[in-house]
Amino acid sequence: MNIITQRCLTVILLLFATVGFSQEKYTLSGTISDMSSSETLIGATVYIVETQTAISTNEYGFFSISLPEGTYTIEISYVSFSTITETVNLNQNIRKNYELSSSSQELSEIVISDNQPKANIKKPEMSVNKLSVQEIKKMPVVMGEVDVLKSILTLPGVTNAGEGSSGFNVRGGAADQNLILLDEATIFNSSHLFGFFSVFNSDAIKDLKLYKGGIPARYGGRLSSVLDIYQKEGNKNEFHMNGGIGAISSRLLAEGPLVKGKGSFLIGGRASYAHLFLKLSDNDNSAYFYDLNTKLSYQLNENNNLYLSGYFGRDLFDISNSFNNVYGNTVLNLRWNHLFNEKLFSNASLIYSDYYYGLELGFVGFTWESGIKNYNFKYDFKNYISDKFKLNYGVNAVYYDFNPGTIKPIDETSTVNPDQLDRKYAFEPAAYIEAEHELTDNITVSYGLRYSMFYRMGQQEVALYANDQPVVFNDELKIYEKGEITGTEYYSSGKTIADFSNLEPRAGVSFKLDDNQSIKASYNRMAQYLHLISNTASPTPLDIWTPSGKYIKPQLLDQVALGYFRNFKNNEYSLEAETFYKKVKNRIDYIDGADLIANNNIEQVILNGKARSYGLELLFRKNTGKLTGWVSYTLSRSEQQTPGRTPDETGINNGGWYLSGYDKLHNLSVTGSYEYNNKWSFGAIFALQSGKPVTYPNGQYVYGDLVIPSYGLRNENRVPAYHHLDVSATYTPKPDKKKGWQGEWVFSIYNLYNRMNAASINFRQNEDTGANEAVRLSIFGIIPSVTYNFKF
User: Which family does the record assign (predicted)?
Assistant: First the structure.
């Protein structure tokens, strides 16, 4: 090698070393929390001014960003908190925790308020609504209590399941297609008092996020949506209590440090007592609920945190002591957060969830119990590889224990024999990986893949049917009937009855037109292995969860969405417009006359079909000023099709498409809050929805002494349109008081103009005139209330 070659190689090596040195990157990481309580903040924004890069904290308040060596201006912001700025000289890895103060308190830092929307425009996340507790508490209050479910019902694409019904529907999906998580634990029924209250105590809630589409790969097991809710950790610095005393219910929550600055506890309870007033009026009917929220947190060291959280709730409803209904959730979650380094964060969870449903029918002399339990292990990792590339991956495994029904006689005089329907067991493991990748300054993509498996396990006797058909078609009567059981096959514990596996790809893209507007698109495939068998026409619906198996296939969804997002006047106004289309395979429906109670072979009344829904969603917000709020509107269609399995079978509705029970063609919601002064604020919510589809009789015939109605096509009729107006006024006597006892009065009226919305329409023959008549069943009319809220 000559001297010239050696010198050239030396120069090249020096150039590479110089480039490598100039491109050296360091990581800024840490947590963001509330200054007053040390409560970590989910979704707080870290904005780098020089690079115009924004990132958000994860579910535990942690953030991490890698940048080339240099000096940067960092802006930290969160809704209802004052934004702070800081100059950081990044010449090494820096771990720093930030504390934000409520915007109502005075700060010495510079306040910046116009950068947070840039992260929302740029992120590929769409079909997602986020609400912090601070935002929810600014919403109009009904019955004197902030309600999480009432807040999401004001969003586009979300409707209530009906007056007197539990749950909610998202983009034309069924209530059982919503995955509802409280601190990662599954909640199987989200409502108290037939949907009038939610099971979530707003005093104990820190943050919530509703995914309607573009669902990340880390979530699975449901088709329509994910409602992800996290409880507060508790105040690590001081002991505090808050609560409310109302005409219908009251609540109390206590929080404080276990070890100051390191550990905290939270315990909160609620209970309703309106049934006590019913007793005073010689009314033997009653309905009430109670629940309990708990959480413990402890910081072992800078890199390890432990959390133990739980929830217990019960609803009780009885009619003259002849009918008693009890149902509720119990969940428990032990979590361990571990920080491997400034770029790799992990969370391991052990979760227990139990949903119980019980009936006592005194007039027939027996009790009925059913439920579902699951045991879940999750291990999730978040890898902040660079400021433009983030990776999430993990595994989880769920074991299910289903109790379809336990029947017991009330006493020895009962003629009912005890019976235990076959318990069912299943195992659902899954693994996922997902990435968020900033390709250019204007294009950001997210993509991921989930691989889910499902094993229907013994120990159980499985019925066998002629031609392997649990449902047969009677060609003479043109009706479906239960298939003939030709024998049984026993599967012992650990044996697999049926197994399924599915690849579930997810993808999203955001194209930023400028700092204030973007176009986004998403696609996701989801698999759901659980099915809710429910008589939704009843005010107290029978809830029986059953797994996929030999005769019931898992539901599969494909959904695409396209949206336009824009901020106006420095985020004073914002507009979100989305259109979506989704289709579902293996959506079950029931044969006419299906019996759901005490049916040990539920597959005998089920037909497999498909579903589809599509629509347009609009959301216009006013974000600042004395008057704030939003208008949301959804135009959508939700349909099902259950064709015949052979050319001779009619299927349902002659094999054509028919409206699902969740179809709401029009859905309008107007939400407004007005701060008159620092003592008085007012709020209102107006809701208008198309009536839900139902099947009315179209004639009748006489058989002996019986008048028997005949019915037309399924769901070709509707109940009357659903609408009501709720108003509230909040009075704070001493608004400037920040310590000691602080109180406020909330005056509210639910259903101001006393609209008697139809929970159902029943048809009967008038005993006096003999004429046929339709009778509307309404659950709630106008309900005024007053509540006193306090904290100290």
Answer: Belongs to the TonB-dependent receptor family.
Q: What is the sign, positive or negative, of the torsion defined by CA atoms of 204, 209, 212, 215?
A: negative
| Number of residues that this document lists for the chain | 792
- From the number of C-beta atoms within 10 Å of its C-beta (0-12, 13-18, 19+), residue 752 rates as middle
Closest C-alpha to 54, from 70, 74, 27: 74
CA distance 142 to 323: 30
The owner of tokens 């027939």 is: 364
pLDDT in tens, 730-761: 999 988 887 889 999 999 898 899 998 887 77
C-alpha distances out from residue 517 to 115, 513, 725, Å = 14, 6, 33
In angstroms, how far apart are the furthest CA atoms of the chain? 118
Gap between the terminal Cα atoms of the chain = 82
CA atoms within 13 A on the CB side of 515: 11
Separation CA 504–CA 501 (nearest Å): 10
Count of other CB atoms within 10 angstroms of residue 433? 16
Report the mean per-residue pLDDT for the chain.
86
Residue 258 structure tokens: 């276990």
Distance CA 213, CA 156 (A): 12
If we measure between CA atoms, which residue out of 217, 266, 196, 227 comes closest to residue 37? 266
Please give the Cα distance from 792 to 253 (Å, whole number): 11
Residue 727's Cβ-count burial label (10 Å; 0-12, 13-18, 19+) is buried
Q: Which residues on adjacent β-strands are paired with residue 687?
A: 669, 724
Hey, what amino acid is at 9?
A: L
Distance (Å, rounded) from C-alpha 232 to C-alpha 224?
26
- Please name the residues in contact with 706: beta carbons below 8 A apart, sequence gap of 6 or more: none
Task: Tell me the DSSP string of 119-153.
Answer: HHHHS---SEEEEEHHHHHTSPPBTTB--HHHHHT
Rounded CA-CA distance 203/250 in Å is: 12
pLDDT in tens, 21-55: 445 788 889 999 888 888 888 888 888 888 878 88
Beta bridge partners of 241: 254
* Token duo for residue 59: 């579910």
For the four alpha carbons of 736, 131, 782 and 283, in that order, the dihedral sign comes to: negative
Please work out, in degrees rounded to the nearest 5, the angle formed at the alpha carbon of residue 427 by the alpha carbons of 423 and 431: 160
C-alpha distances out from residue 40 to 23, 31, 37, 236, 309, Å: 33, 7, 9, 11, 16
| CA pseudo-torsion sign 249, 254, 255, 258 | negative
